[in-house]
Amino acid sequence: MLQTSTHHHFPPQLLPRHPLCLRISLIISAHRRPLLRHQSYTHIRLRVSSCTKSSSKNTVAELVKAVDGQKANDQQQQQVKRPYPFHEIEPKWQHYWEENKTFRTPDEIDTSKPKFYVLDMFPYPSGAGLHVGHPLGYTATDILARFKRMQGFNVLHPMGWDAFGLPAEQYAIETGTHPKITTLRNISRFRSQLKSLGFSYDWDREISTTEPDYYKWTQWIFLQLMKRGLAYQAEVPVNWCPALGTVLANEEVVDGVSERGGHPVIRKPMRQWMLRITAYADRLLEDLDDLDWPESIKEMQRNWIGRSEGAELDFVVINGNGQEEEKRITVYTTRPDTIFGATYLVLAPEHPILSSVLSEAQSKHVEEYRELAIRKSDLERTELQKEKTGVFTGCYARNPANGQAIPIWVADYVLGSYGTGAIMAVPAHDTRDYEFAVKYSIPISWVVKPDDGDGGNFERPYSGEGTMINASSSESGLDINGLPSKDAASRVIQWLEKSGNGKQKVNYKLRDWLFARQRYWGEPIPVIFLDDTGEGIPVSETELPLTLPELDDFTPTGTGEPPLSKADSWVITKDPLSGKAARRETNTMPQWAGSCWYYLRFMDPKNSSALVDKAKEQYWSPVDVYVGGAEHAVLHLLYARFWHKVLYDIGVVSTKEPFKCVINQGIILGEVQYTACKDDKGNLISADSVAELAEYNQEKIPEEKVMKSGDFFVLKDNPNVRLIARAHKMSKSRGNVINPDDVVLEYGADSLRLYEMFMGPLRSWRLIVGSPSPAGSYPDGTSTVDEKPSIEQLRSLHRCIDKVTEEIEGTRFNTGISAMMEFINAAYKWDKLPRSIIEAFVLLLSPYAPHMAEELWSRLGHSNSLAYEPFPKADAAYLKESTVVLPVQINGKTRGTIQVEETCTEEEAFRLASLDTKLSKFLDGKSIRKRIYVQGKILNIVIDAQKKVKVAQ
Fold it and tell me: Which end of the chain has less neighbouring CB within 10 Å, N or C?
């Protein structure tokens, strides 16, 4: 793995009046193998920090607001301070590209040419518009797109909008503005900002998930899922937010409250549409091996899918008299060999059998515990570091291996959505179970001896494999004593199946995808329900798209019914086949739906008769390079892969996977928020002693009262109080957004593009065009001359070509820019700038700074855009090392060395020696008797030490 790390700041002259110092750290890793073979990837992490200490009265939001208020006053100064005339160049070329559709990918193309499909994860068009984090990934894909066009590839580089979602609906509730109006306004702003940065998108292919022509095919895919039994309804526990009136995904719930608005969230069983993604678990897992993705992302998906092999086994519930009942508790375990060590069972609080296995004495305690548990997210409940809690149900079950009665507990660290919602707890061989057993004085029975241990001195749980001990029963007929763990597991499974107590089972952590939201602003689900039977009937494909009805009231109903239920004239319908009365589904699809397949629609966005034309899909698939944030590493990428595989099975797509190469771009983080916990009396409590955050009051702490202590943050006045520290993404709601418009206005789009990649364009402009007049105007044309370049100039150019090409192909953009900076530094020392050299350099520069490059290309005498000019190729003849270190002797004694070309003449070698400060003192004023020169080997200067050359007075 080749890794290059650069840490640098936006220089003061770039943002001279901005109160925030933007610090960008690019950590770029890539395979040595070139991107041309789709075997490279990059990880880009960014962090923004404030360069000023902010107080509660002087927040980031106020600082940014001050900048916005100063814009008008600064306008005149900005015009004077412009480093070069980008304010004329950039609009000029953006207009040219749009007018001439320079980057449009024709519907009909020469398919004999190689293709390159480079795609950004398309954005949600929020009201905040772009911030400086967005252009980072977009600039990277744009460099690749421009580079590949110049290399002769057919390039597909589109942009669109993932525009359904909760924020627009919440804005509609607050203001009465229809979500469509808000969305179109936000899209317009995003589009203009992207165009101002000169990205070479094919805007003729622009799509939005909210357009009926688009979501017609999202609905069509849903119907195909229904036909294959992959879409079904079930009553499942969900994250229900009463204030927002909708179900939230796990990642939308933080510390028991909604990420948006901070409203309480509870777990509530509701009828929901589900997608059977688990049916594709094995394929989703196996096909990861063939993908050129960051290994960390593939591992995250493997862990999310969580395939494991084990056994399901039944524990019979016994009553107070020790008699067996009809009820059975089924558990799943990956360690059936440890069955003799199971000393208690644990049920999830939402387990359906729980209410029927409660003693009268424990019933109240269990119900109170269940109420607390349903308010927590799955993540909170399963945190490894949190203290485990639980309540005894008052009932028992029989361990089938040894016949012992073991207690049944309820604990929130067991999830109803995973496995069977119940576990057999083996405290001797599981750390979590051990902590629980010690806390509640539950027996611990060791049944696995480590192969390197004596087996008689157990002081802590052992979770590894070994040799079985204390593992036999004449009553059950099961004896695995002395067997290795793996052999014992196989023996137990055979016994379970033979005795009827269980079976072998493959299990997954992956759960079916909850595919319904109680919202208005989403894709309508194309299903109706008959009034008399409740049967769900899919809408005919010929009736698609099923469009959203117009609503004036988007507020939650308060009952759990979605806002669409208010649209009576739309909801009440008839089954077209039977004529029976029916009602439409009033849940809508989640925002993830439209983003699962948009990459396919970009291939054929205007097709009204098919999701995508087969020939076009076969040519463009798969996406060659897909760039986006690592926060989408699991859910979006996993969902898109699932839908793609379904489409592959029904013959819509020709590849098993949608994205060949994925590049992760991190998010820019704004300020860090520090929070202290307080008890009911207002006393501060250290965060490391808090088991459940939701049980304590929280208070924000100003940054000036915080200090770092080891890996944690604490109060300056009381270092014993550890704080909760959380960095937030840039967002308008947090007031920590740095708007790229400000940078573009003052320094130009190319400056922003290149600073996000590493450098600014000013020196290139000054080198080729020249310095401005006192009035600030620049000369027409360039400073180049129509002369043959020197060997030195050709070598400098071709080294630059070679390095830039290699670094773009490896997505190491910052080091590619370094190579161009080295060229510029060398060129500033030349007496003349040969036109052929500068033209080639301008082509190298164009993927990075396209506006300036187009202007320079025009000034060099070309009438057409350089967008499709061949990218320069390095000539190997100029890449060889051509300089040597030449020893210089004075009267036979070596006095120093000089660096010369291999073909250096005697005169040139003597001239360089005379200019060398170390050697010149031996030659100054001396009479040269003769010179002995062996090319590339040595220069010996023989001087007359007795005679000095008389200097004219």
Answer: C
